[in-house]
Amino acid sequence: MNGYDPQNIFAKILRGEIPCHKVYEDAHALAFMDIMPRCDGHVLVIPKMPSRNLLDANPEALATLMPAVQKLARACKAAMAAEGISIEQYNEPASGQTVYHLHFHILPRWEGVKLKPHGAEMAKPEVLAMLAEKIKAALASSV
Ligand code: 5GP
After folding, report:
1. Which atom of ligand 1 lies closest to the CA of 42?
2. pTM > 0.90: yes or no
């Protein structure tokens, strides 16, 4: 396994060098819309502490990240009126990982609606912005 590359795209998003449609941030985590969503409301939750994926992550960093994963799962389900939520997380290329900063995919699901292929199609920025606002509103009303 290779190490952590601080020039990966999510590290740049964390440093504010690249924009994102942010939905949530706390001391340990950042959540933003996936630019090539597999479904409406597809959100990524990443730790602020660098790690390539789950395999090299600091267990304490994981412990501080998972509350944000749960928070976003609940907010995405409410905001999108979803019937379920899939959480996906890939480790190394053979598994499908393409960005080498640990991240959890939050995927709202509906009966009979299949996920689009991974990383296939860019979403329109205005659609991502609109969905981000809905998810932020659900987060605000859950406090
Ligand atoms: P992985 O295959 O590593 O689990 O997933 C990486 C995810 O990051 C993909 O779903 C892809 O659409 C998303 N992604 C790649 N580049 C960017 C980007 O620049 N901005 C955002 N918001 N998402 C990205």
Report:
1. 10
2. yes
